[in-house]
Design brief:
Blueprint: H1 7-14, E1 21-23, H2 32-43, E2 48-53, H3 60-72, E3 77-81, H4 94-103, E4 110-115, H5 125-135, E5 141-144, H6 150-162, E6 169-174, H7 179-189, H8 191-200, H9 202-209, H10 217-223, E7 234-240, H11 245-270, H12 294-299
Helix pairs in contact: 7-8
Length: 300
């Protein structure tokens, strides 16, 4: 979620307490709104991890103050990123901030770092690979940037495992967000930030603005089988809501309901005679996509 002024109210209204949250950092708004929102949500009972953008941390004193505030609020996790700020403070990249956190003896149980299945628009692939391998010993998990090609994400995860990076990976996917919502959020980020975001995520831009729009269902179904394979680190999903929390939570609940129904059917079929569908599929796996909601259909 983004640290906009209405974000806290949206969380309290629509997100269950057992859903872990992350609060991103934007160049336009700086680090402080992220820390403030994370602290408030933690005190309301949520398990929340703020994004710490290294280039926006001024110096050791600033870092120590951030850690103290998060510790006091009971926050046990952070996601450390380099950030896009043009001018850096004492920490020019994520690795330098991760090292500093370790040196001061941070209290965080979970430390996430970013991963880029399709590479980074401004950083060479070799440099990205080297940086990720250097950051891995300081982290407990990887959260991947949005990628709309499931095969690309799986191949990237397998390559990481082959290079000795065996951290669990949360796959970044978009929530159930409309094109109109994306436009509003982009405007709220400021023109420069929006342009940077879209220039680095061309696949996101085109998927949202084609006539049919975008639904995350197919991406979920194509990625899920890889979670049970031992040759990659994919373990779960990390949903980028763009603050469209109500529709994203409704979409998540539809998936959970459909999966529950599938499990029930599988249990029932296992107590009766063996059977298959006409196409030979296992009936316990034929759950299909959650039914589309009217808003999503209207936005297509």
């Amino acid at each position: 979620m983004l640290p906009f002024k209405n974000a806290e109210g949206q969380v309290l209204a629509h997100v269950p307490m057992d859903v872990p949250l992350t609060v991103t950092t934007t160049e336009a708004k700086g680090l402080e709104p992220t820390i403030e929102l994370a602290v408030r949500l933690s005190r309301s009972g949520y398990r929340v991890a703020p994004h710490l953008a290294a280039r926006q941390v001024r110096d050791e004193a600033h870092l120590a103050d951030i850690v103290a505030r998060l510790r006091e609020a009971g926050i046990e996790g952070v996601l450390v990123i380099g950030g896009d700020a043009a001018k850096a403070g004492q920490y020019p990249d994520a690795l330098s901030l991760l090292t500093a956190l370790q040196e001061i003896g941070h209290p965080f149980v979970s430390v996430g770092i970013g991963g880029y299945p399709e590479g980074h628009g401004k950083i060479p692939d070799a440099a990205m690979e080297q940086a990720l391998k250097a950051k891995a010993p300081h982290a407990t998990e990887i959260i991947s940037q949005l990628c709309f090609a499931a095969g690309t994400t799986v191949d990237w995860s397998r390559a990481l495992r082959a290079r000795g990076v065996d951290l669990p990976i949360k796959v970044g996917i978009p929530g159930a967000i409309s094109r109109q919502k994306l436009i509003r959020v982009s405007a709220g980020l400021g023109l420069g930030q929006s342009a940077k975001f879209l220039s680095n995520q061309q696949s996101l831009f085109w998927r949202f603005f084609t006539p049919r729009g975008y639904s995350p269902n197919k991406l979920v179904e194509r990625l899920t089988p890889a979670f049970s394979q031992g040759d990659n680190g994919l373990r779960s999903f990390h949903v980028f809501t763009f603050n469209d929390l109500e529709s994203t939570e409704a979409w998540r609940q539809r998936w959970l309901s459909r999966l529950h129904e599938g499990v029930q059917r599988h249990r029932e079929s296992s107590t009766s005679r063996p059977r298959t569908l006409r196409n030979g599929a296992d009936p316990g796996r034929s759950w299909g996509f959650p039914p589309e909601d009217p808003e999503e259909l209207q936005n297509r």
